[in-house]
Amino acid sequence: xxxxxxxxxxxxxxxxxxxxxxxxxxxxxxxxxxxxxxxxxxxxxxxxxxxxxxxxxxxxxxxxxxxxxxxxxxxxxxxxxxxxxxxxxxxxxxxxxxxxxx
Length: 102
Hints:
By secondary structure, the protein is mainly alpha-helical. Helices cover 51% and strands 0% of the residues.
């Protein structure tokens, strides 16, 4: 008898599913990165841009290869890079982002 009906079916982590489930999953990181990238175009681009790049990279599984690339992760990575680049150009003074340059 298999323990009077108390086999391993009630405990899915007992066989084969023993990975650690800490922190946000990849889909959540992709969405958070996309939100950071879009918000970075309007405010705090120098902070939210790199945050979007990091979230997108982690959501992609830290690799370019493979078919597990999700669209929000790729959008977060690309928009975060563009956002960071624009923020660095604006901070360097090469662009006049204001009511005038006189």
